[in-house]
Amino acid sequence: MLSEERQGKIVSLVNENKSMSIQMLMKALDASESTIRRDLGELDEKGLLEKVYGGAVAKNQIFSGKDETVKIRMELNREAKISIARYAASLINDDDFVYIDAGTTTEFMIPFITAKKATFVTNGFSHARKLSEAGFVTYILGGEVKFPTEAVVGEEAVLMLFKYHFTKGFWGTNGISHSSGFSTPDVKEALIKQMSMSRTREKYILGDASKFSQISCVNFAEFSDATVITTELGNELSTYRSYSNIVEVKEQ
Questions:
Q1: What are the CB-based long-range contacts (under 8 Å, 24+) for 231-235?
Q2: What are phi and psi of 209, to 5 degrees?
Q3: For residue 56, which phi and psi values (nearest 5 degrees)?
Q4: Phi and psi dihedrals of 124, rounded to 5?
């Protein structure tokens, strides 16, 4: 079989199944491991698929540059988000100084936080209200308010982050991709995420399975920069299980 024909079949198989392991491709195409690895590398460079550890996943279209409102996003994959949030909240201890990013999954964390002596900083104004109502010592960044995500962004918020050194931080994301990292549609919000992550020792990205192999407009961190807390990944995303920074939690 000519390499062009074989590579075309690889792309078709990956797109049809969303992901394929090297072993599956070897069996389907009766080709050696070295041949498949070489083909995947070339196809990844051409942008026709995304090469991941042990195989490849389909190359999805880039997200639009628009964020849905919090009201809409609260209902998307709600049960998965709550399961992720419950697990994330369990990681917070009394002596932690915590950054919580604006976002729906991070907001779901708040009712599950039991470490009453922990201190919090957030750029989500609804987060700040709920944390304060729950009795936590809470600080909110100052700056421009972005309506769709109810996030505080801008230069003033960035400058405030220079004051802090967080023990733990939790962020939402629009896209999770091994090759492209974590991404979001808005430049200003990406800058806040990037700066707050740079001031944090233990970093956690909260994202349900729908965020995987997705790429949004602006990258704010590399894939290896944080631990990803998600729900159980289906067969189409099974290749992501090979990465040590993926934590799957069961939906409850």
A1: 231/80, 231/83, 231/84, 233/209, 234/209, 235/18, 235/19
A2: -60, -25
A3: -150, 155
A4: -105, 120
pLDDT digits (tens, 9 = 90+) for 184-238: 988 999 999 999 999 999 999 999 988 887 778 889 999 999 999 999 988 778 8
List the beta bridge partners of residue 133. none
If you compute the radius of gyration of the chain from its CA atoms, what whole number of angstroms results?
20
Ramachandran region, residue 88 (left: φ > 0; alpha: ψ -120 to 50; beta: rest): alpha
Q: ∠ CA(72), CA(77), CA(82), 5° rounding?
A: 105
CA distance 209 to 115: 28
If 0-12 CB within 10 Å is exposed, 13-18 middle and 19+ buried, where does residue 229 land?
buried
Q: Is the pTM of this model over 0.70?
A: yes
DSSP 115: -
